[in-house]
Amino acid sequence: MTGSRAEAAYSRAVTAFTTPTLDLLHGRFAPFVVAALSIVFTADRASVAIADGHAELSEILDELRAAGYDDDGRKIPAGTGRDVCRNWVRLGWLVQQIDDDVEVYRLSAHAVEALEIAGRTGAGRTRVSNSRVRTLLEAVEHLTDSAEADPVRRLVRLGAERDVLDAEIARIQASGFADPLDDDELLEEAENVLHLARELPADFTRVAESLRAMQRDVVAYLRRDERPTGEVLREYLQRAQDVMQATPEGRAFAGALRLIGDPDRIDALTEQLHGLLRQPFARLLDSTQRAELDAIGRRVELGVEEVLAAQRRASHVITGQVKTHDPLRDRQIDDLLRDVIAGLHAWSGAGAVEPVRSMPLLDLGHLRQAVSDIRPPGSPAPLTQAVDVEFADVDSRAWGGPRYAELEAYVAGLGEVFDLAAAFTDAAADTRRPVDLLGLLEIAHRNGMSESAEVSMVEAVRPDGTTRRFAFAAVTARTTKEDDEHDG
User: Fold this and answer.
1) How many angstroms separate the CA atoms of 22 and 117, rounded?
2) Are residues 191 and 305 in the same domain?
């Protein structure tokens, strides 16, 4: 009998030390892992972009190596921040996921629990305090009341509680004093609150990971097509309900959701925490304890947000899988992958294999341009001498852009200032095309011009003799640039 109990206890211990939580705390680089993860991930930063995580961890590695903590090569892991993060993902301490189209790292439930254990142990020895024992007794009393089925006993207990409250109210009304606890007892109460708050992040992360595991199971069931889709979805809904109600993690999440679901209650919690930090006993808390006490409300909000995000992501993935689920296509893909894997096994077992040094070339010839064209490709018809083409008598260059050289020579003889409409009307016929009007405007803008409210009308002549009228705001232009005149 003794041997059986010893074997069972040893087996449980071996199983516990194979979990990522104790593997993190028992590893050779455990102090570095705990320190680095506690720096990168905080109560206000539950996730970090992968690129930022690599950069920050590289800085931590460089600082510790420069400080001489890696003289023997046994305290700091080798490699870059990217190498270390990838190893932590493989060990189950970090989780990769997509948040708002950005790939991020998150702490796994095992890593959160390991950090909580290290933080609680490093903060000092856990004391059997009045606050902690009272919390246990109150939890037992609440459990007893909840399980009590006899209405008479329950009424007796509620009456006793009411008598205690009435006596306390009467005492305070008579004396006018609340008689708070002394600072040492208040410090114990605060440490108990911090102890309870440190356990919440691991619970939230375990709920989120349970949802992600459920998502993977449902998608695997759908892809294997072992059962009807409706049956798989019904099981998904049942498992979602079980995760939220039938597990310790789910109960912790349900309680937090009831707390965070009431804005007045969370505001009251925040105000209470701020009020506690202003009390005289708060000076006995160190800076870390004060920061943790102040961040309890935010820690609860972040945990609920993580679980709700995991639930939304699971619903989105499963809904997309149901909409695009094609059993025949999935089965064909699975068969193809099995054939490829079997071929790779056969190829790898063939001994020495001649490497492929170049890929063979394939002469495709002329590719068909349209699927509907069933005629074979042929060469184009030969060119024939055109006899019915008419050529215009006007030089084709006359249809080109503005004649800048002629326009600039013409503008140079107009005086210091000129009216653009009058200048265009008086120009030669071959420089009164529509494009020449644009060229004249460009020259005026380059040298300096001003516009008025009046409207000018000009008539342009195309190379084929047709005319076109244009209207624009009256423009007064200079012959040369103003800077050029000052330089002269």
Assistant:
1) 10
2) yes
